[in-house]
Amino acid sequence: MKEYMKRNAVLLVLLAAAVAVSAAVIAGRWRVEAGNKQYDILIDYNEVELMAEQSGRDVSWWLEQFRDMGLTRVALTEETLASLMENSPLPVTATVMDAVLQDADWAESYPAAFVSAIEAYGYDRFDVLVEVFGREAAGFVVDAVERRFHSEDLVVLDQGEEAYILINSTVDDALYERDEGYYTTAGKSFSSRSVLSASKLMYVSLGLMPEKVERIQSLGLEVAPRTICYNSFNDARYTQAVIEGYERSPTPLAARRKKAAARQANTTAPAKLASSLKELGITSHAAPTHSQAAPASSRVHLRFMGRKVSGSSAPPTPAPSPTASRTREGTW
Known about the structure:
alpha+beta; three-stranded parallel sheet; 12 helices; 16% strand
């Protein structure tokens, strides 16, 4: 044994040091967790909306029920262009230019100033064209887009009651539907094609809907914000925009008040919540969660955010074509 220890003295010393360091780290973590017995009971706002649709009760009614059961926070996902189109009263439409260009007279559907601007800027089929109607919707979308996207990737026409936006998107952002094909009368495949139907930029978070935040906080509940992004877009500008959005919320999420009574109630909340859900016939699985700190102008104006093509101004008369030349770096 002594001979073995002599031959492996260095290895044994390193092993002992590793054990000592691991023990110190584990002990420190145990002390921190032993002194932190707080947890929150959350429910997802989207799930509450589904329950409201299926029950005939509104969202506020359901939130009140869960609050009385011991729920303390509501997980709220930030809006995206896709969510605003699919599940929002705001009139917002986002379309990839590939779909827009299918209509030979597409330019007649948009203000001449906007068409002239994007013609001067350059576009391709991967870009996203956004239409927003109503002062509330236009203010929300225009502000969120300008805070998150870089100025050289935008052309914005804000008319107060409506807004039009072109967002520079690339082939790497493109989202396709499953291959569609053509078949002969004999059922044989003739050709196949992929349909460009969306862009990843349509799923980038634009911020929390103010009315949802107000609804949650008016019931004495706290908001647990959730943001959505993807790897190539979560830069410092995006992060700063998200944080600023939380700070501008009706009751700043980053400065939530700590309510001792609510924290004390947490000790009995799990059992109370489980009992209430059982009475409603709902099966639940409790899991602790960690706490998190967390006006548009009516004047018509065009913000030409990106670089123009050669020439000092946009052409006075729009002359759109399905294949406008691309002038931006890093894209087609």
